[in-house]
From TrEMBL:
It is found in: Membrane. It comes from Aeromicrobium wangtongii. It comes from the Bacteria. This is C-type cytochrome biogenesis protein CcsB. The gene is ccsB. Keywords: Cytochrome c-type biogenesis, Membrane, Transmembrane, Transmembrane helix. The lineage of its organism: Bacteria, Bacillati, Actinomycetota, Actinomycetes, Propionibacteriales. InterPro entries: Cyt_c_assembly, Cyt_c_biogenesis_CcsA, Cyt_c_biogenesis_CcsA/CcmC. The chain crosses the membrane at residues 12-34, 65-87, 99-118, 124-147, 159-187, 223-243, 255-274, 280-303.
């Protein structure tokens, strides 16, 4: 195949993955919707539908079917997006994360893989709507900054850039899962405080208790933080020395990477030393994710700096 063929396949695959992921989001929302009137003692099956085939004869079965469809579509979207990422790399003859479009595609792929793995390990199917919804938005927004496959500028020709960006992608995928868990923690904990026992119906009472959700959020952030530390504060400065002759220059992207690190460091430090759990910790985690997203989107599009060629 020619490089143009690979590029065309990549474009079709990414567009298809976006559509499939949007359908997965709709299926997950339907799963929650079918469970809206179920009492709290009817346990909702996770997104994997582990109880087996269902006929859809009652709300809980329809909910299970929708969840199983959502997981299947998420898996299919992940496979198709992987094809798109690989063929993009073949078309460009390099690693496929050299600009905003490519970063968005690979970051979404990493987030979906992380989610699918954790569905099996920790049974976190309850974050499916947030992960698929956010992933659809990221892929759609990435298409708006699409650039044709091609070589990188000379400053990006370094294996330290490969390591730096790959670390940011992996940690960002975990930060997304942690943010999704933090959002659901805030919603569930408030419902636990304010909803009488006899009124606890719907999807919110099919997901784990807020304490378990909070634990998942903490574990995911504890995994992601060391990777972000290495990517942003070690590999990044080493690449900067190679590209610009200095390790740190307070470029806007460097500043926001450091702000993200400080926020997440504060979150983990408070959790570990002061037992700082609950609403305040969840809000701090969401602030950290907001700084991460702004670093990826806002700095590149509106602030600029020496990283502006990565658009």
């Amino acid at each position: 195949m020619t490089l143009e063929n690979y590029a065309q396949i990549s474009n079709y695959a990414v567009a298809s993955a976006t559509g499939i992921l949007a359908l997965a989001f709709v299926a997950y929302v339907a799963q929650w919707g079918f469970a809206r009137n179920l009492p709290a003692d009817r346990e909702l099956v996770n997104a994997g539908g582990v109880e087996g085939p269902s006929t859809g004869a009652d709300p809980v079965e329809r909910s299970d079917v929708a969840g199983g469809i959502g997981l299947s579509l998420t898996s299919l979207s992940t496979i198709v997006l992987l094809i798109g990422v690989v063929t993009r790399g073949l078309a460009a003859e390099r690693v496929p994360w050299g600009n905003m479009y490519e970063f968005g595609c690979v970051a979404t792929l990493a987030a979906l893989v992380t989610y699918l793995v954790l569905v099996r390990v920790w049974d976190i199917g309850w974050v499916g709507p947030i992960i698929t919804g956010f992933g659809t938005v990221v892929l759609g927004a990435s298409a708006m900054v699409y650039v044709p496959a091609g070589p990188l500028v000379p400053a990006l020709h370094s294996y330290w850039l490969v390591i730096h960006v790959l670390g940011a992608i992996i940690s960002g995928a975990a930060f997304l899962v942690g943010a999704a868990a933090s959002v659901l923690y805030l919603v569930k904990s408030r419902a636990e405080r304010n909803t009488p026992e006899d009124k606890r119906t719907g999807f919110l009472w099919r997901i784990p208790a807020s304490a378990k959700i909070d634990q998942v959020a903490y574990r995911v952030h504890a995994f992601a933080f060391p990777i972000w530390t290495f990517a942003a504060l070690i590999a990044g400065p080493i690449w900067a020395q190679y590209a610009w002759g200095r390790y740190w220059g307070w470029d806007p992207k460097e500043v926001w990477a450091f702000i993200t690190w400080v926020v997440y460091a504060g979150y983990l430090h408070a959790r570990a030393t002061a037992g700082w759990k609950g609403k305040a910790a969840a809000i701090l985690a969401l602030i950290g994710f907001a700084t991460f997203v702004f670093n990826f989107v806002g700095v590149n599009l509106w602030v600029g700096g020496m990283h502006s060629y990565a658009k």
